[in-house]
Each structure stands twice: as C-alpha cells, then as structure tokens.
Amino acid sequence: MGMFEQIYQSLYDQIRNTDLHPWIEEIAQGIRANLCYSSNGHLPGWIQSLEALPQVTPSCLRLDQDAVTIGSPGDLQGDQPQALANALMSLHPWRKGPWNFFGLELDAEWRSNLKWDRLKQATSPLRDRLVLDIGSGNGYYSYRMAGEQAQLTLGIDPYLLYVVQSLVARRYLPDTLPAWVVPFSIEQLPSAIPVFNTVFSMGVLYHQRSPLDHLLEIQSLLAPEGELVLETLVVDGPEGYTLLPKGRYAKMRNTWFIPSCLTLERWLEHCGYRGINLVDVSLTMSDEQRSTDWMCFDSLKTFLDPQDPTKTIEGYPGPKRAIFVASR
Predict the structure, then answer these.
(1) Hey, which of 110, 164, 170, 292 would disulfide with 46, CB 3.0 to 4.6 Å?
(2) Does the pLDDT value for residue 75 go beyond 70?
(3) What is the number of other CB atoms lying within 10 angstroms of the CB of residue 121?
(4) In terms of C-beta density within 10 A (0-12 exposed, 13-18 middle, 19 or more buried), how is residue 328 classed?
C-alpha cells in the first residue's frame, strides 16, 4: 500500500501550512488505518484500475466548469483512450459529476453542477478558506471548491470506492492542488478541531440518528465566525413537523429524520448557530438525478411512485432539498 502513502504525502505537506497542522499525525494514522491497511476485498482491484490509467500529462485543467475537466483528447495516443475508458468503468458506479477526462465525458448519476450553481452564490467566498466537505463522495465538489481558490479543501467519506475515484483526478493533478478526499466519517475526525472556515454537509443530515448531535459536531469543527453550508432533504409542514419514515424512503436505507424547513431552522437555533438563512428549496428532478452508463443501477425514476411521481415508491412526499447557510 505504499502508493497511498506516497499520494497523501502531498496532503500532509499542504496541511503544515494551515491551522490544521497540529493534527497531521492523527490524520495520517487514520488514512493508514482506513485505507492503506484496509481489509476491503475490492480494494486490490480498485488499485489495479488506478495503476491502469494512462501515464500522460494533461494539457489543461478546468475546475470552474460544469464538468471537472482534466486534459484534452489530443493528449492521448494509440490505445490510451480505450485504456482510460476501461479503467474508469471498472470503478463503476460514479455517483457525483460530471467529469471530463481527456475528452471522455463521464456522465455521473447526479448532475452535481446544478446543486453547485444553487449554493455557490449564497456562501461566503471560499478564497483562502480552510474547507471541510463532509460526505464528499468522489470529490467533485471538493475540486470545484479548489477552483474557487480555497486554501485547502478536505473531503471526507468512509466509502473507499469514492476515495479511490477521487484519486483518479489526483493522478493527473499537480501535487500542490489543495483538494483531497480522505477515508473518514465525521466521527473519525480528531475531536475538537475548531479550525475550518467553511463546513459543507450535503446529503448527510437525514442519515444521522441524532441530527442535532451532527449539527453540534459540525459546530465544534468551525473556526470563530466559520460558516456551515447545510443541504438536506426536507418536507412541507409547520414548525415542529418532522417525517420519520417507516422503513425506507425513496428506496434509501438508513433514512431517519426529514424535517420541515421551519423545524430545521429551530434545530440550528437550538444548536447555537447565528445568521441562519434558507437560500434554496428545490424538488429533485430527473434532469438532475438519473441512471446513466456510468451508474446503471436504480435512480430517481424508480424511487418514485409510477402513478404519482410527486410521491416516493413508499408513498411519502417526493424528494425536496433545502440549502441553509449559518454561522457559528
């Protein structure tokens, strides 16, 4: 597993220049435990996919477009385009995107650029900020944040496939690019590190058995005057109303509390957040989440009632997502 140690050395070098530097060794130990020494039986195959990527220097890098764009078609020669496509497909499914690797358009399940467009104008500028992206998945948002000139974006996700997918991009990015995904859940981060200027929690809150504890945990990670960007499922209803699904919600396991917007605002107030601002409420539509060649399993269309697409297959209100911004 020496490959991972070598890759993440650049992260440790970057952390030394931030307020996160006292926790370098704890972060390194977590990466070694959760990735380098993982017993996940799929990991050797995923490593082979990384090693099969063509060795080529990209001629361009664009982090400010809908698709995270690395290289152009002319950078590849011979059988390299097919080798690239094979390696990327062997890391299926791709949930967040879009990506463009050397002209190969990787159309992920989520058109994550749509959510990014909804939230980026409502947040404080990320330039020179230390950013945490909780539940980052394959790093799409983390790389977009780097494109906004963040000092360092640390994405965390416990699912190793997503961590490995993030390393596809890192394979071609400069070592100095300040965006990384590490194999942690929020509970595995070192405790009480109030250094992050912005913390993103997107698509995470409704998977928490104790959502208020999640909000308090984020608060403990925020620097003074730091900002929370919270995106989560909501339902219509008055203050105090919360949906607790019986069984699954839109076929999702491990879905707990889905509050009304007014209820979520009260939760944030009770946890001590200030300047609470609801910046967007949007129905999830099939132009944003759908099955593709790069994620061929069930997606939104099969999560909804075919007779009434305003409801989930279980009969609950269809997915609606809200974005809140608040300060510590």
Answers:
(1) 164
(2) yes
(3) 8
(4) buried
Distance of CA 105 to the CA centre of its chain: 20
**pLDDT in the model for residue 304:** 96
Is the model's pLDDT at 144 over the cut of 60?
A: yes
Separation of alpha carbons 317 and 320, rounded Å: 8
- Note whether 250 and 319 are within 8 A (CB): yes
Q: What is the pLDDT of residue 262?
A: 98
212 pLDDT tier (thresholds 50, 70, 90): very high
Residues in Cβ contact with 76 at an 8 Å cutoff, skipping those fewer than 6 apart: 54, 56, 84, 102, 103
For the chain, where are the alpha helices, taking DSSP H only? 2-15, 24-31, 43-51, 80-89, 112-120, 140-147, 160-172, 211-221, 261-270, 300-303
Strand partners for 152: 130
Cβ–Cβ under 8 Å, residues 5 and 32? yes
Distance CA 122, CA 118 (A): 8
Alpha helices in 52-209, H assignment, sequence order: 80-89, 112-120, 140-147, 160-172
- Section 295-320 average pLDDT: 95
Percentage of the chain exceeding pLDDT 90: 94
Choose among 178, 184, 99: nearest CA to 145. 178
- Residue 255 and residue 141: Cα distance in Å, rounded? 23
Residues 171, 175: Cα–Cα separation, whole Å: 9
Q: Enter the CATH code of domain 2-327.
A: 3.40.50.150
Domain map (residue ranges) of the chain = 2-327
Mean pLDDT of 156-170: 97
Mean pLDDT across the stretch 24-51? 94
